[in-house]
Amino acid sequence: MFLSFPNLKIYSIDLDIILKAQEIVERFNVKQRDAIHASCALKFCNGRIISNDSDFDKTDGIKRIF
User: Which end of the chain is more exposed for a tag (fewer CB within 10 A), N or C?
Assistant: First the structure.
């Protein structure tokens, strides 16, 4: 069922994503999982992320949409 979401795209996580996520954790003191999502949003979605998690508001370059 999850894979049937309209417009769902699945991307591979590479070393660049992980390194950027580590930088985000260190700079903005967010959880690792949030940092990986933020890193992916920066790389694949022009920094936009759909979430109700306000932790993304303190991460430079991330535009939270909800």
Answer: N
Q: In whole angstroms, what is the distance from residue 14 CA to residue 27 CA?
A: 20
End-to-end CA distance of the chain: 22
Quick check: 53 and 34 in contact, CB under 8 A?
A: yes
Return phi, psi of residue 8, to 5°: -70, 130
DSSP string, 13-54: --HHHHHHHHHHHHHH---HHHHHHHHHHHHHSTTEEE-S-G
Banded model confidence at residue 8, pLDDT cuts 50, 70, 90: confident
Give bridge partners of residue 34 from the DSSP assignment.
none
pTM of the model: 0.87
Q: Which amino acid belongs to residue 66? A: F
